[in-house]
From TrEMBL, chain A:
<protein>
    <submittedName>
        <fullName>Peptide/nickel transport system substrate-binding protein</fullName>
    </submittedName>
</protein>
<dbReference type="GO" id="GO:0015833">
    <property type="term" value="P:peptide transport"/>
</dbReference>
<feature type="signal peptide">
    <location>
        <begin position="1"/>
        <end position="25"/>
    </location>
</feature>
<dbReference type="InterPro" id="IPR039424">
    <property type="entry name" value="SBP_5"/>
</dbReference>
<dbReference type="Pfam" id="PF00496">
    <property type="entry name" value="SBP_bac_5"/>
</dbReference>
<dbReference type="GO" id="GO:0043190">
    <property type="term" value="C:ATP-binding cassette (ABC) transporter complex"/>
</dbReference>
<comment type="similarity">
    <text>Belongs to the bacterial solute-binding protein 5 family.</text>
</comment>
UniProtKB/TrEMBL annotation, chain B:
<keyword id="KW-0813">Transport</keyword>
<comment type="similarity">
    <text>Belongs to the binding-protein-dependent transport system permease family.</text>
</comment>
<keyword id="KW-0812">Transmembrane</keyword>
<keyword id="KW-1003">Cell membrane</keyword>
<feature type="transmembrane region" description="Helical">
    <location>
        <begin position="133"/>
        <end position="155"/>
    </location>
</feature>
<dbReference type="GO" id="GO:0055085">
    <property type="term" value="P:transmembrane transport"/>
</dbReference>
<feature type="transmembrane region" description="Helical">
    <location>
        <begin position="101"/>
        <end position="121"/>
    </location>
</feature>
From TrEMBL, chain C:
<dbReference type="InterPro" id="IPR000515">
    <property type="entry name" value="MetI-like"/>
</dbReference>
<feature type="transmembrane region" description="Helical">
    <location>
        <begin position="174"/>
        <end position="192"/>
    </location>
</feature>
<dbReference type="InterPro" id="IPR035906">
    <property type="entry name" value="MetI-like_sf"/>
</dbReference>
<feature type="transmembrane region" description="Helical">
    <location>
        <begin position="282"/>
        <end position="303"/>
    </location>
</feature>
<comment type="similarity">
    <text>Belongs to the binding-protein-dependent transport system permease family.</text>
</comment>
<dbReference type="GO" id="GO:0055085">
    <property type="term" value="P:transmembrane transport"/>
</dbReference>
<keyword id="KW-0472">Membrane</keyword>
């Protein structure tokens, strides 16, 4: 089983080359300007406008982008993300080997790394973190607390009903950690690049009682650790969090193991309203922000700001309710494949991509972007054809079918910049094809997500940004068999054994090229069955002022600010 | 005077009790009841049962109410669903900002409104008069959030004169003592921080103060016009008193009575306006917290904040009543 | 008396007492007629009335007046992020962010704004009046209970009240109207009660009582009709408030979820996202709201002056 480490090492070599090249490029540019010295200027404070407050700063309990945005600066995992790409690359591990059977991973750790509290990063610390996750109890085991751990490892020591695929972690010496799994999965080790699997200081975790969650599942109160003392190895240290004003302040980690970060300080300031973020950038109160409205790309560039467009690594889809969620009234019309096909043919994806989404957006043919291994170029496609849609609907005897169409409010997602506009266009398309639409608008979190999960919608808008380059992270998240024998409720809880089997098989396939083929097959099956309509892949953008340099947009929205500098 | 105040304070009790009943009923009436409100729609029946038991929701209603009341009296409204922090703690942290903002808005409205209304009345029929009348009508008719956007677009973005969001420039490292930022700056002698915090009040304060300003201009103008025609003013004039004396002693003083009533009224309305203004200006006060809580369906915060704001509102009105008593001897006699 | 909103209450009561003063007539001319005469002579009233009438006509005949289907996304394919076509032949005010004719949307939107204004004000008036009559006619403990209740509602700032109601009732256009109506109830209740109380001791009521006329008849036949004028004034002013408040609730995301129904408040708050691309999208609905609110305010103020005996000297 030599293929895996080679791949990662190759990727890391590529990344190194990229870094070197970037360094050359930047020094060229600087010397071109003359006088200012050969390298990017160090020092200064960067104020970055975030769309929401982090939930807390212990990434093990995080699942949302705003939490991870801050956590990525403070914490690091065994693996990280390739700069500006989607491949996992070594971070706190220098490399790793995997056993023949694909169950034992030996990580060779970076040496001389210390946590922000001065304690050493070593194999003991790695195992402490793995054991910590595995031994979560009580509220910490609820999906709202440890979503990613459960998505990758399954259950916990305390939940024998849902076993974990984690078996053990052993520190064989100071800088070697051996992790054993109970079954092969394509998610491991790529998933270790997720912020949720950051290695944090064991001493700080214990001292500030990190696992002490209180409250209730949907109103978690976090520990002192998560709110006041997050301690990792990353380029920036946590300084303070002013909750009243939504400001998280981080300062440079002087003892960082890698290239010293350039900024003295980063302040993440929460400005929920997109319009306010733009105006604050224009007035100079902040130096950059995320989730630029597509309407503003051009005008911001005209004003001299740098709009950094990420490669699209997401999917927006129209989800259906397959009707198997207990306790909900499903729309029987959606059980009919012809009705589902009618919906797919009714939607004018070209116009949506051209008129509503930023330049660079693409219409989707399947539930993952083309850059992910496993994307198939020969899936069944459903072109915009309102006549065909009407005809299919007629054949199904379902003209005038009423669909409860749920859409979120008060939110802008990387794949869905303006939900209300998207809703109105699709709604009009469906009406034109002969459906009757009953609109339901709910605030994104928690109402909308809850309602969709609970199967209240007939059709709904939802999407996903990939966590790392892996097909299962897309279609497995959506369509794999959940514990109750159905697909996840967000996907209308349909039961299609063929798709379930194809996904499970691919996930357990250790050989990469065989796996890719299996995922392609799964995609074909999915697009034949049509459990929802994939709509688009959209490139989200960040914007920074013209005096900010070195911010590399990441398709995963996983920007790390260590290479960023700011001039006066 | 003391008896007057004490009596008024005692009269607060039934109002607050009534309010607590209303808010209790409100939380009970939410779709799915408090358990679902707290746990979300995905909650399993077991989880709901557990929650009900934990919070005594399986008890008879009056027992639940008394418990709720008991906790409310101790200012315990539970934890925010969004941040997991005690509701009261968040309120106390954010209230100073709202008070600062409201004060600024009120001072702006009074400071500009009374002189403007007085001048308009003195030059009755002049262009100043008509402009102030039209202006004040427009002020009331413009949606607050739209005005806020316009102000920010003009003064923060286009002209760059004033900060357009927040309570303090984040790059200023200010010491916090009371959470009244201007005051903090003065107390710690961080003059730049105090000045910066003050500048941050200007745009939201003006947006918030526009409606009261418009109303105060109108009322001042009307009551000055009224008073000028009163017999005692005519008498005073006839007696040969200096115009300035007549104005100071008789016109202004008497004209201010209805104005002070209006000021009291408007202070309460400002708390409503603060939700909109603070949201537009990303101003970390109570209003923007309520806005966030609406979307996060953070019922604990909504309930606690609304009850506590209502108490503030009632107390402000009490203060106004007392000051009214000081201004107008007739009120005290009752 | 309690301390809550004492000042606010006193102001409402003052208004009520003034308007409730028994009409003496002017040389035999009825109150209504003399009021109307004064109105006609007041240019402000005329301006207000013209605005209101135009608004009502546009709202009533909106489907006929609108040149296009306000929902048809006609020019959608010409829209690009950051570009919305402006005024052009067939689209005098240009189109919105989904390629729909802005003029038609404004015209049809007047209906929804009118509906929200009228329904919520009516609801507020009816419930408020019922409470006021109850308190004013019976007095005693009924009065105390009703007025305490009204005081409690008054003690919650109005927008917070509206928010609580919207959250409770879920997001639809009716809950929006109810939310606005609830904030109006206490005003009308106090107003009516005050003006009825003011008449209680008046000569004609005493005379009627002496004649042995039943209380119900006195209340409904004499006192109530005489107390209506401040209610009419306040209702006119409340219409303006309701339209503005609807815009505010839309902005807070508590508006009508059916985006297919054009409504000025929703159009205005939605257009904030396109301020940099095409500010007209915000300016037009804002102007509509301001002008209509202004119209109702002018008319209401003029009515108040016309009906107020104090101005009749």
């Amino acid at each position: 089983m030599q293929r895996r480490p080679q791949r990662v090492l190759a990727a890391s070599a590529a990344a190194l080359t990229a870094v070197t090249l970037a360094a050359c490029a930047s020094s060229d540019r600087d010397s071109g300007e003359g006088g200012e010295g050969g390298e990017a200027q160090s020092g200064g404070t960067l104020v970055f406008g975030a769309a929401g407050d982090p939930a807390m700063l212990d990434p093990a309990f995080g699942s949302d982008g705003e939490t991870f945005r801050v956590a990525r600066q403070i914490h690091e995992g065994l693996l990280g993300n390739e700069l500006g790409g989607t491949e996992p690359v070594p971070e706190l591990a220098e490399d790793y080997e995997v056993s023949e059977d694909g169950l034992e991973y030996t990580f060779n750790l970076r040496q001389g790394v210390t946590f922000h509290d001065g304690t050493d990063f070593n194999a003991e610390a790695v195992c402490f973190n793995f054991d910590r996750w595995y031994n979560f109890e009580g509220l910490a085991t609820s999906p709202s607390a440890s979503y990613y751990y459960q998505a990758v490892f399954g259950g916990f020591a305390s939940t024998p009903d849902t076993p974990s695929i984690y078996e053990s972690c052993e520190a064989t010496d100071e800088s070697t950690a051996v992790i054993r799994l109970t079954q092969v999965t394509s998610k491991f080790p790529s998933a270790l690049a997720l912020p949720a699997f950051s290695i944090q200081s064991p001493e700080a975790l214990q001292q500030y009682d990190a696992d002490n969650l209180s409250g209730s599942e949907d109103a978690l109160s976090y520990s002192e650790y998560a709110l006041e003392h997050p301690t990792g190895t990353g380029p920036f240290r946590f300084e303070s969090w002013d909750r009243g004003n939504g400001e998280v302040t981080l300062v440079r980690n002087e003892d960082y193991w890698g290239d010293a970060p350039l900024l003295d300080e980063i302040i993440f300031r929460t400005i929920p309203d997109g319009n306010t973020r733009r105006q604050e950038l224009q007035s100079g109160a902040i130096d950059g922000y995320d989730f630029v409205a597509p309407a503003d790309y051009q005008s911001l560039e005209d004003d001299g700001f740098q709009v950094l467009v990420r490669d699209p690594f997401n999917i927006l889809y129209l989800g259906f309710n397959g009707g198997n969620v207990p306790g909900t009234q499903a729309n029987p019309a959606l059980q009919n494949p012809q009705v589902r096909q009618a919906i797919a043919h009714a939607i004018d994806r070209e116009t949506i991509v051209n008129s509503l989404l930023p330049e660079g957006a693409e219409a989707a043919t399947q539930f993952m972007p083309p850059t992910v291994d496993g994307w198939a170029d020969d899936v069944t496609t459903y072109d915009y054809d309102p006549d065909r849609a009407r005809q299919l609907l007629q054949e199904a005897g379902a003209e005038g079918t009423t669909l409860r169409f749920y859409y979120p409010t008060e939110v802008s997602r990387p794949y869905l910049p303006d939900p209300a506009a998207m809703f109105q266009v699709i709604s009009q398309n469906l009406t034109d094809a002969g459906f009757t639409i009953e609109p339901v608008a709910l605030p994104w979190n928690p109402d909308y997500l809850n309602a969709v999960q609970a199967g209240q919608a007939d059709i709904h808008l939802l999407g996903w940004t990939g966590d790392y380059n892996d097909a299962y992270n897309f279609i497995g998240t959506f369509f794999a068999e959940a514990s109750n024998g159905q697909a996840s409720a967000e996907f209308g809880a349909f039961s299609n054994p063929e798709i379930f089997a194809a996904l499970a098989e691919a996930d357990a396939e250790p050989d990469a090229s065989a796996r890719t083929e299996q995922y392609q097959e799964a995609n074909r099956l999915i697009m034949d069955y049509l459990p929802g309509v994939p709509i688009s892949h959209s490139p989200p953008a960040l914007v920074v002022a013209d005096n900010v340099e070195g911010l590399e947009p990441s398709p995963l929205t996983a920007e790390v600010f260590s290479t960023v500098s700011i001039t006066d | 005077m003391l008896r007057f105040v004490v009596r008024r304070l005692l009269q607060l009790i039934p109002i607050l009790l009534g309010l607590s009943v209303l808010l209790f009923a409100w939380l009970r009436a939410l779709p799915g009841g408090p358990a679902q409100a707290a746990l979300g729609e995905r909650a399993t029946p077991e989880a709901i049962a557990r929650y009900n038991e934990l919070f005594g929701l399986d008890q008879p209603l009056y027992v639940q109410y008394l418990r709720f009341l008991g906790r409310a009296v101790q200012l315990d409204f539970g934890n925010s669903a969004r941040t997991g922090r005690p509701v009261t703690e968040e309120f106390l942290e954010r209230m100073p900002g709202t008070i600062e903002l409201t004060l600024f808005a009120m001072v702006f409205a009074i400071g500009v409104g009374i002189p403007l209304g007085y001048l308009a009345a003195r030059r009755h029929g002049s262009w100043l008069d008509s402009t102030s009348v039209v202006g004040s009508l427009l002020g009331v008719a413009t949606p607050v959030f739209f005005l806020a956007y316009l102000l920010r677009l003009l003064f923060a973005v286009e002209l760059g004169w004033l900060p357009g969001s927040g309570r303090q420039e984040v790059r200023i490292d200010a010491t916090r003592i009371t959470n009244f930022y201007v005051l903090d700056g003065l107390l710690t002698r961080e003059w730049d921080a105090a000045w910066d915090a003050f500048l941050h009040l200007v745009l939201p304060g003006i947006a918030l103060g526009t409606i009261p300003l418009a109303i105060i201009v109108r009322i001042t103008r009307a009551s000055v016009l009224d008073v000028v025609n009163e017999d005692y003013v005519r008498t005073a004039n006839a007696k040969g008193l200096a115009t300035a004396t007549v104005r100071r002693r008789h016109v202004i003083r008497n004209a201010l009575l209805p104005v002070s009533t209006t000021i009291g009224l408007q202070t309460g309305l400002l708390l409503s306006g603060a939700v909109l203004t603070e949201t537009v200006f990303a101003f970390g006060g109570v209003g923007s917290a309520i806005f966030d809580a609406i979307f996060a369906r953070d019922f604990a915060v909504l309930q606690g904040f609304i009850l506590m704001l209502a108490v503030v509102y009632v107390l402000v009105n009490l203060l106004v009543d007392i000051s009214y008593g000081l201004l107008d001897p007739r009120v005290r006699v009752r | 008396m309690s301390a809550v909103g004492d000042v606010r209450r006193r102001r409402i009561d003052e208004l009520a007492a003034r308007a409730g003063q028994v009409p003496e007539g002017e040389g035999g001319v009825s109150l209504t007629r003399s009021a109307f005469r004064r109105l006609r002579r007041n240019p402000v009233a005329i301006l207000g009335a013209v605005i209101v009438v135009v608004f009502l006509v546009v709202a009533a005949f909106a489907p006929l007046l609108a040149p296009r289907d306000p929902l048809a996304q006609t020019l959608l394919s010409e829209i690009r992020p950051g570009f919305i076509p402006g005024s052009q032949p067939g689209f005098p005010l240009g189109v919105d962010e989904l390629g729909r004719d802005l003029l038609s949307r404004l015209i049809v939107g007047s209906r929804q704004s009118l509906l929200i204004g009228v329904v919520s004000t009516l609801l507020g008036v009816v419930v408020g009046m019922a409470l006021g009559v109850l308190a004013g006619a019976f007095g005693g403990w009924v009065d105390t209970v009703v007025m305490r209740f009204v005081d409690i509602i008054l003690s919650i700032p109005s927008l917070l009240m509206a928010i609580s109601i919207s959250v409770l009732l879920g997001q639809n256009q009716w809950s929006l109207m109810i939310a606005i109506a609830v904030t109006q109830v206490p005003v009308f209740a106090r107003l009516l009660r005050g003006s009825m109380l003011a008449q209680r001791g008046s000569d004609y009521v005493l005379a009627a009582q002496a004649l042995g006329i039943r209380r119900r008849r006195i209340v409904f036949g004499h006192v109530l009709p005489n107390s209506l004028s401040p209610v009419i004034v306040q209702a006119t002013l409340s219409l303006a408030t309701a339209i503005i408040e609807a815009a505010a609730l839309s902005f807070l995301g508590l508006g009508d979820p059916d985006l297919a129904r054009p409504e000025w408040g929703a159009m205005l708050s939605n257009a904030q996202d396109f301020l940099s691309v095409r500010p007209e999208l915000a300016i037009y609905p804002a102007v509509c709201i301001i002008v209509v609110a202004l119209g109702f305010t002018l008319l209401g103020e003029a009515l108040r002056e016309a009906l107020d005996p104090k101005f009749r000297r």
